[in-house]
Specification:
Layout lengths: L3 H8 L5 H6 L21 E5 L8 H11 L3 E3 L6 H6 L24 H17 L4 E4 L9 H21 L3 E5 L15 H11 L4 E6 H7 L3 H8 L3 E5 L17 H10 L5 E4 L8 H11 L3
Parallel strand pairs: 1-2, 1-7, 3-4, 4-5, 5-6, 6-7
Helix pairs in contact: 5-6, 6-7, 9-10
């Protein structure tokens, strides 16, 4: 993924004292404001903040509300109060992972990950959110079976906490060809097998359309086949992870229709990096393309 330092540094932010103090106040008091834009479809629109890292969060929230976006995601507990202030959801919170490359596949990270997730999952629930992102980590020479076994062993130790708090721990599928060399969860079938081994409706997958187009293609057929294992979707233009318009090889209106045809009621998040100077105009256009 481009701008990896930005996203990795964001992922490493574990809840701190300021965020903990905030949870002792009336957290849910901010009522959602009316969206200024009405869409024709049932798509719930979200956006990943890291793609717009130069725009302050407060300003960004004001801008995306005008577009009609309902959620800003991949932000941690210290930033949730700003989203609440503007009546925005966080469709995919972060704050417990320790890095995309340092995940459940490596048992040396289990102790820290278990501690983090048991701490943050209740905060996600208290904030009224439903999901929490996680990562497989890198292979480091491991075969598929070892990685699956290690991931399942670790995740099972937090899944009761997730179930008790009605939070879904969601593992993102990423490409290991262009952006995340050596990443383990780089194919849908591997992620599905991990879901089956964990054996809980509170562990599912984040199907990143950009990443899976690079690794395996066949996007619509895969969504139709495995939609029961998918909790969330990300967009992105291929090649380059730029605007999802006619400059790239994926036709998003058909993909979004396929997602809706499965009965999906969650969010679709824009996670492309705009090339245009007017980045918010590109974001608005991406949302419009997905409004089918």
């Amino acid at each position: 993924m481009d701008k990896m330092n930005t996203r990795r540094s964001s992922i490493k932010k574990i809840v701190g004292g300021a965020a903990m103090a905030f949870f002792s106040t009336n957290y849910a008091s901010a009522a959602p404001e009316a969206l200024e834009k009405k869409f024709k479809s049932q798509v719930k629109h979200s956006v990943c903040k890291w793609c717009y890292d130069k725009i302050p969060l407060e300003e960004f929230c004001q801008s995306v509300k005008k577009i009609g976006i309902q959620s800003v995601e991949l932000v941690g507990p210290d930033q949730w109060p700003i989203l609440k202030k503007h009546g925005l959801d966080c469709a995919m919170p972060e704050g417990a992972a320790i890095g995309i490359d340092k995940g459940w596949s490596d048992k040396s990270y289990h102790e820290k990950l278990i501690s983090n997730y048991k701490e943050v999952i209740p905060l996600v629930a208290k904030a009224g959110y439903k999901n929490l992102i996680t990562f497989s980590g890198n292979r480091r020479g491991m075969d598929d079976e070892t990685g699956l076994s290690n991931c399942a062993e670790g995740i099972k130790k937090i899944i009761k906490t997730a179930e008790e708090n009605n939070v879904v721990v969601v593992m993102e599928l990423l490409n290991s060809k262009v952006d995340h060399g050596d990443y383990f969860a780089d194919h849908t079938e591997w992620g599905v097998e991990l879901c089956n081994r964990v054996g809980s409706e509170n562990f599912k997958l984040l199907y990143d359309i950009y990443h899976m187009q690079i690794m395996e293609g066949d996007v619509i057929a895969t969504i139709r086949k495995h939609h029961n294992y998918i909790a969330h979707y990300h967009t992105g233009g291929v090649p380059g992870r730029n605007e999802i318009d006619e400059t790239q090889e994926l036709y998003y209106p058909a993909i979004i229709r396929a997602i809706l045809d499965t009965g999906f009621k969650g969010y679709v998040a824009q996670e492309f990096i705009p090339k245009s100077e007017d980045k918010l105009a590109s974001l608005k256009r991406g949302v419009e393309i997905c409004d089918v």
